[in-house]
Batch of 2 targets.
Target 1
Amino acid sequence: MIFPASSFYSFYRPSECELRIYLRAHHEKESDPSEFEKLIKELGLRHEREHLASFPEFEDLRDGSFDERIERTFTAVTKGVPVIYQGVLHAKFPGTSDTIVGIPDFMIKDGESYRIRDSKLARHADERRHPEILRQLELYG
C-alpha cells in the first residue's frame, strides 16, 4: 500500500473521514468536483506557479513516472540543485510493501540540507485551522 502525504487532506477535508482514504486507496469512483472545488484548485495552482516564478533557478520534477521522479529527486539532491520543484520523497517500511510518499512543492537548499516549503492558499495552519497542513509537513520531515 502507498500512503501519500495528501491522504491527510483526504482525512480532514471537507470533514474528518477515514472511509474516504480507504475508498481512494481502493480506486473507488468519486463524485465530480464542484465548481467551487475546481476554482479553489485553480487558485492554488496559480499561487504555486507564481511562487515558483520567484526562484531564478530550479529543477522541475513534475513530469515522468513515479519511479523516474524518485530517481530524479535523488539525483537533484546529490547535485545540490538550489530549488527542487515537486520532488518525490518516499520511505518503505521494512519487511512490507507499504510505502509513505511525500511530494513537497519546493525543496530549497539550505547549507548541506534542504528545507521543505509547500505553497498553500491558507493564511493559517494550526490544530484548529488546517491540521492537515501540519500533518503533511510532519510527514515530509
Note: The chain has a mean pLDDT of 85.
Target 2
Amino acid sequence: MARPIRKTTLFLRIALRLIFPLLFLISAFTAVQLTNQLSFLNKVYEIQSHISLQGMTEILNRNLADADLLQNPFLLKAKLTGAMETHGITELLILDPLTRETLFTDQDKDFSREDLVSAEQSLLAKKEGKPPLFLIDRETQKLNAFVPVTSPVRQRVYIAKMGFPLGNLKLALQKSMGALIAMFLLTLLSGLVIAGALSRSIVKPIQSLNKATQEMLRGQ
C-alpha cells in the first residue's frame, strides 16, 4: 500500500521551490527602490546646492569687499567656516586664477589641474553671462561649483570652489528601509499563501482518489 502524502511535507517542498523566485523578486525590487531613492536624493541635494550657492556667493562678495577681513586671514577663516556650516558646504577653496594664490582653504587643499581647467571655464561662462559651472565628482560623491567672486579691495576676480554633498547608497538604504521591510514581509506572506494553496490543491484530489479507491476495494 502506498504511503499517504503528508500535507506538511508537500507544503515545505513547494515553499522551498518558491524561495529562489521570491528572492529574485525581492532583489529586483530592492535595486529599483535604491536607484529611485538615490536619484531622488541627488535631485533634492542639487536643488539645495543651488539655493545655498546663491547665499554663499553673496557672503563671499561681501567679505572680499572688506579690507580688514582680507588683512586678517584668521578672522576671514572663522567667518567663512561658519558660513559653510550654515549653507551645508563640505569644501571651500578660493583661488586667484592669475597668480595661483590660494586665498582660502578649509582642508589644506589646493586646486588640482582639473580644478584649474574648471576655473578657466567658469570665468569664460561668466563673461558669456552663463550660470556657474557645476561638476559631479562621482569618486567623492560631491557636487562641485566653480564661482567667480570679485574683490574690489584688491581689484581681482577669484574663483571659489564649493563642494556640496550628494546622495549615497547608505543614505538611500536608510530612507528605503521601511519600504524594503514591508516588501520582504509581503512577499514572504504571499509565498506562504501560494505554497499553502498549492499543497491543498494537490493533496485534496489525491486524498479523494485514495478514499474512492479504498471504498472500491472494500466493495469487492
Note: The radius of gyration is 33 Å.
